[in-house]
Design brief:
It is a multi-pass membrane protein. GO terms for molecular function: amino-acid betaine transmembrane transporter activity; antiporter activity; choline transmembrane transporter activity. It comes from Psychrobacter pacificensis. The chain has 114 residues and is mainly alpha-helical. The chain has 4 helices and no strands. The chain is flat, with a radius of gyration of 15 Å.
């Protein structure tokens, strides 16, 4: 398996850990519930570790844009599905712009490792 494939795999898992960790942040009720707080901390730590491993191959700006951008989209979806939070039109447009930026960067930038 190539180092690029492994790096993108690490980045994918890092994004998932960050999103799940953020759902535990909500469940921690401002750090008053031990179990969700510990899960949140462990998932955030794993997410940052995997992001750091990604940086061995993928440039910082690209990796962080993917991690942050996809994290925002997935966290918004988690809020919608799990916590019944709503998004207004401006929020949906903003999220679409983030997705557009990630797509443009990945398809058109020479900085992205393929």
């Amino acid at each position: 398996m190539s180092s690029t494939t492994i790096a993108y795999g690490c980045l994918t898992i890092a994004i998932i850990c960050e999103v799940v960790g953020t759902t535990f942040l909500v469940k921690s009720e401002q750090f008053t519930r031990l179990g969700p707080t510990l899960m949140m901390g462990a998932l955030y730590a794993l997410s940052f570790y995997l992001l750091a491993q990604t940086l061995k191959v993928i440039p910082l700006g690209i990796a962080y844009a993917l991690w942050g951008g996809l994290g925002i989209v997935l966290t918004s979806l988690a809020g919608l599905v799990l916590f019944k939070q709503t998004l207004d039109t401006a929020a949906v447009v903003g999220i679409a712009m983030i997705v557009g930026g990630v797509v443009v960067m990945n398809l058109l930038s020479n900085s992205v490792v393929h």
